[in-house]
TrEMBL record, chain A:
InterPro entries: FldB/FldC_alpha/beta. It comes from Pseudoramibacter porci. Its cofactor is [4Fe-4S] cluster. Belongs to the FldB/FldC dehydratase alpha/beta subunit family. PANTHER family: 2-HYDROXYACYL-COA DEHYDRATASE,D-COMPONENT (PTHR30548:SF2), 2-HYDROXYGLUTARYL-COA DEHYDRATASE, D-COMPONENT-RELATED (PTHR30548). The lineage of its organism: Bacteria, Bacillati, Bacillota, Clostridia, Eubacteriales. Keywords: Iron, Iron-sulfur, Metal-binding. This is 2-hydroxyacyl-CoA dehydratase.
UniProtKB/TrEMBL annotation, chain B:
Its cofactor is [4Fe-4S] cluster. SUPFAM superfamilies: Actin-like ATPase domain. It comes from the Bacteria. Gene3D superfamilies: 3.30.420.40, 3.40.50.11890, 3.40.50.11900. This is 3-hydroxyacyl-ACP dehydratase. NCBIfam families: CoA_E_activ. Residues 330-578 form the ATPase BadF/BadG/BcrA/BcrD type domain. Keywords: Iron, Iron-sulfur, Metal-binding.
């Protein structure tokens, strides 16, 4: 049993009787991890990635230590608006990943299931619910979610936040982009902003939002250029780091720190050696703990995960003259919104742009949209002629990731490439 | 004919222009075709609809297509799968807002208009250009809402039904067992109430459609449970129905559990809408109705001024009574692995008991078990005043005078053996259950495992087989374990391959055995937690004889389990006691 497991066991023993102490241990663990990554980090990992890792750990710690200025969100929440009010984000997905990092996700998931939450629900959501109900996560200032991709978002926040009278907002995102559907979203954004103004006793600053969106446009330009560079260059990465990029591309996007990260990887990649291995384009979340996948991909010179589609889920520069309309359009245009045909077209484009030699589509336990889409997408994308593997598993809970099966499938697939 | 799945579909609009609308209510046998298109973990209803639609298309030539709303993730994927499979049919995804604001109504009306135009284009039929409002108004006037009237003549109890969509067979089962449905607010079972006087434009109709009693995916659903306030005095029980792999309604079921103001007994019932699940539904519904009928008659007695009988019998020792006298009652528990019998006398004393392995035909095992126990008691068939059966084979024993579910019988048996027991864990060969009792020994809540073998005796048998030891040896082995090994997979098949890899890694058999027991214990404890763990906790069923299992459970629970000498006969004993009460 390694040190992380021991620490996790220790927290789990504290949890039932003393959630406050368990919560303290989690914060202490984050602090130690951030220190370790900053001073003892693996020198093979590019410096911008190591710094991003620390940034995310510190960000997480901040939301737990200052819940009064934190908002619970999901990955697709327009955080640009929250930044306008200096609110930080604690997302369900990130919290679930950290709980898994501490190997206490199983306890939290069992807790949620014991309450009557469906065992077949997404593990990120179950872990989040269990952690909230166990008192591990302090109550935030507010909670906000969108209906993008995942049915569970609205339900989880209703169950954990709204029921405790935390101001909770749903942004309902329609399936199709029309004049009316955009107007529907813009109206919701305006209502939400008015609520935030009341809650924070301060006015919304449209110019500040413009600056945020400007940095966001620059960030994505840098990231796209980075992706283009890694078609030919070797840029060492791990499954965990790909998940950390989600922190930059979604949870702090538009901030100076996010822009700095994207600019640095862009510059850094340009000076890297040529990559002669195989490139993988990943669909959906990555199970960063999975032994066979870690062995195959982490800092590997043979196989490089170019990106996950979740980091490239929209593709338009935002119109700075109409910032709210631009945010509405960004959400409605997200590649995961609407009929599958739209996503298939987007994936086809991304496979081309990343120069992938193979595609791995990860069927995360409990994700109904992915479970429904995987076979249909594989069939539709067979015309690209690129090998395509569907892997069943779980982003955070090893109990739903059959180790032997993943290993055999993955190895056969890599042999195929 | 146009098929549809969701209560937010504007069916009146289509019917007003003479389009036949048919609600998809699948009760299928298998999901073979659906699972070729979608992953098995997609909601059972959606898979059922795919199967049913394929059947419809092959049998009828008037199937024009299907209207699907963007109700949920699985629903959207149903659209994608149908669209890819039937390119020539009218497969339409109607985007449905989650809010009921003026902007949402405007958007929804636009979406409905666009759909009608698309249908017009598909069929080549021209429709009214005024938003079809005239035929719709005429239609609504001519078709006032039909009120639900489904009550059996001899209703014993009043129940409400809420949650995810249910099949007709669930409603039929409830009626067959004497339950009157005071309400059924599952999808598509609500009356469609419109106020034609307030419908002047299409937008008005769309607004009324959106503003129905909300389903869980709508933004206003947080207040749904408030409706129960009006029914609390009238309900004997509430059934909360969920569909396998539709996770949305579990949130509300969990919130209902936390609701301190609602005191009506609740049965959480999960089905996958297949015909096979109807057997399981039957056991659970029967047990629930037994439970709430008992509550009701007790409440009635108390209301009549009679005090409830002081119910504190002495714990029954497992020794056959030396002196006993007629009447004799036989309880028989026909389980999947063993058939257990108990004979008691008129004072409830044990006379004899027996355990027989259930063979391929449960009726033969039952007859054998009855003869053996009669021999042991020195009695004849004619000496028996009554025979009560329980267990999964309870309906198929022609010699039984009455039958009761194993839930009620385990509760009764456990309470008689040890009145301090409040929680029971029964791990049987094919299913496991957690039951909670009140001080009087009445069942107040219970849950059963899913229909897979995870967490049952069968799982242990398969693991013993993989480790090449007997079931008895497996338990003993586990006690000698030194290293913690985690068997993470709860699926029997995957767990087997995990065990095989552990063997390949040269792990010690005792540690693997311990891991197997710990995995089942985890499952069992989560069942127990769902009913709430209140001491004392009794374990019943054959697996209670396994010392390895008991040790792991006691360790994880942090308490001592109460186990009678023959934990397998608790259900049969409970059945016999019920028989005695019936005399």
């Amino acid at each position: 049993m390694d040190i992380v497991h021991r620490y996790g066991e220790w927290i789990k023993n504290k949890l039932p009787d003393n959630p406050k102490a368990a919560s303290r241990y989690i914060r202490l663990g984050l602090r130690l991890e951030s220190f370790a990554k900053r001073h003892l980090g693996d020198k093979n990992v590019p410096l911008p990635y190591r710094d991003l890792n620390c940034l995310a750990l510190d960000g997480m710690l901040h939301t737990l230590e200052h819940p009064e200025s934190a908002a619970w969100t999901n990955l697709f929440t327009p955080v640009e608006i929250l930044q306008n009010f200096d609110l930080t984000c604690l997302s369900i997905e990130m919290m679930g990943s950290f709980l898994s990092g501490f190997t206490i996700e199983d306890w939290c998931i069992d807790q949620a299931e014991a309450e009557g939450i469906a065992p077949t629900l997404c593990s990120y959501h179950k872990a989040f619910i269990g952690a909230v109900d166990a008192g591990l996560i302090p109550m935030p200032k507010c909670a906000v979610t969108t209906s993008i991709v995942c049915d569970a978002n609205l339900q989880t926040f209703r169950y954990t936040a709204d029921s405790r009278h935390i101001p909770t907002t749903l942004l309902d995102i329609p399936n199709e982009k029309t004049k009316d559907s955009l107007a529907y979203v813009v109206k919701q954004l305006k209502d939400w902003i008015a609520q935030l103004e009341d809650l924070n006793h301060r006015a919304f600053d449209l110019d500040k939002l413009r600056d945020t969106l400007d940095r966001e446009n620059q960030s994505f330009e840098a990231y796209r250029h980075f992706i283009e560079l890694t078609r030919t260059r070797y840029y060492p990465s791990t499954l965990t780091l790909q998940m950390f990029v989600l922190y930059a591309s979604h949870l702090i996007i538009g901030s100076p720190e996010a822009l700095d990260f994207f600019k640095r990887i862009e510059t850094d990649a340009a000076s890297r050696p040529v990559f002669s291995g195989k490139r993988i384009f990943w669909l959906h979340v990555l199970p960063f703990y999975e032994p066979a996948l870690k062995h195959a991909f982490n800092l590997s010179k043979k196989y490089q995960i170019q990106a996950t589609d979740m980091n490239l889920d929209y593709n338009l520069p935002l119109d700075l003259d109409h910032p709210l309309e631009a945010l509405a359009e960004k959400m409605v245009d997200n590649i995961f919104v609407g009929p599958l045909d739209r996503r298939i077209d987007a994936e086809r484009r991304l496979i081309r742009e990343t120069g992938a030699d193979g595609v791995i589509s990860f069927n995360h336990w409990g994700c109904k949209q992915m479970a429904g889409a995987a076979n249909l997408m594989k069939k539709a994308l067979s015309d690209t002629g690129i090998p395509y593997l569907i892997l069943d598993g779980d982003g955070i809970d090893p109990r739903n990731s059959p180790e032997g099966q993943i290993k055999t499938r993955l190895e056969a697939f890599l042999e195929m490439l | 004919m146009l098929a549809y799945i969701c209560k937010y579909t504007p069916i009146e609009l289509f019917e007003s222009i003479d389009v036949e609308m048919e609600l998809m209510e699948p009760e299928v046998v298998q999901f073979n075709r659906a699972e070729a298109l979608l992953h098995p973990n997609v909601c059972a209803y959606v898979k059922g609809v795919l199967e049913m639609f394929a059947d419809l298309v092959s049998k009828r030539d008037d199937v024009e297509g299907m209207i699907i709303t963007s109700c949920c993730d699985s629903g959207r994927r149903l659209y994608d799968a149908l669209k890819a499979t039937y390119p020539d049919k009218f497969i339409y995804l109607l985007d449905l807002p989650r809010k009921v604001t003026p902007e949402a109504v405007k958007l929804f009306t636009k979406n409905v208009s666009t759909m009608i135009s698309a249908y017009s284009e598909h069929t080549g039929r021209a429709f009214y250009s005024d938003g079809m409002i005239r035929p719709l108004k005429a239609y609504l006037k001519a078709h006032p809402p039909a009120l639900q009237s489904d009550a059996p003549a001899d209703a014993k109890v009043n129940v409400g039904l809420i949650g995810a969509r249910c099949s007709q067979s669930l409603i039929d089962t409830l009626h067959a067992h004497g339950a009157k449905l005071l309400f059924n607010v599952t999808c598509n079972h609500l009356a469609r109430l419109f106020n034609p006087a307030e419908i002047g434009r299409l937008e008005d109709y769309c607004e009324q459609l959106l503003a129905q009693f909300p389903c869980m995916r709508m933004a206003g659903a947080e207040d749904r449970l408030n409706m129960l306030d009006d029914f609390e005095d009238k309900l004997d029980g509430l059934i909360y129905h969920t569909v396998k792999f539709c996770d949305q309604y579990h949130y509300e079921a969990a919130a209902l559990k936390k609701l301190e103001t609602f005191h009506v007994p609740v049965l959480n019932l999960e089905t996958d809408l297949t015909r096979q699940s109807s057997g399981q539904i039957k056991t659970r519904v029967e047990a629930f109705i037994e439970e709430i009928s008992a509550n009701k008659s007790k409440a009635d007695t108390q209301a009549d001024g009679e005090a409830a009988p002081a119910d504190t019998p002495e714990a029954v020792k497992l020794v056959p009574a030396e002196h006993h006298a007629a009447p004799y009652v036989l309880g028989i528990d026909s389980g999947s692995t063993s058939t257990n019998t108990v004979i008691i006398d008129g004072s409830g004393q044990l006379v004899a008991w027996d355990i027989v392995r259930t063979g391929a035909k449960s009726i033969l095992s039952a007859e054998k078990a009855m003869h053996q126990v009669l021999d042991k008691a020195g009695l004849k068939r004619e000496d028996l005043a009554r025979i009560v059966s329980t267990g999964y084979g309870r309906d198929h024993l022609p010699f039984a005078d009455a039958d009761l579910t194993e839930i009620t019988c385990h509760g009764k048996g456990a309470h008689a053996f040890d009145p301090a027991v409040r929680t029971i864990l029964d791990i049987g060969g094919q299913d496991s259950k957690a039951i909670r009792l009140n001080a009087a020994g009445d069942v107040v809540d219970f849950v059963m495992n899913d229909k897979c073998a995870a967490g049952t005796g069968r799982f242990l048998e398969m693991m013993a087989h993989t480790l090449d030891v007997s079931l008895e040896e497996l338990g003993q082995l586990s006690l000698k374990s030194k290293e913690d090994i985690r068997i993470s997979s709860m699926c029997t098949v995957f767990a087997e391959s995990e065990v095989i890899s552990l063997i390949a890694e040269n792990k010690e058999p005792e540690d693997i055995a311990h891991g197997v027991h710990a995995a089942i214990a985890g499952r069992a404890i989560s069942l127990l937690r769902r009913v709430g763990i209140e001491e004392a906790v009794m374990m019943t069923g054959g697996v209670a004889k396994n010392p390895g299992m008991v040790a792991v459970l006691e360790d994880q629970l942090g308490l001592k389990l109460r186990i009678v000498d023959e934990p397998e006969i608790v259900g049969a004993y409970g059945a016999a006691l019920s028989g005695l009460e019936q005399l």
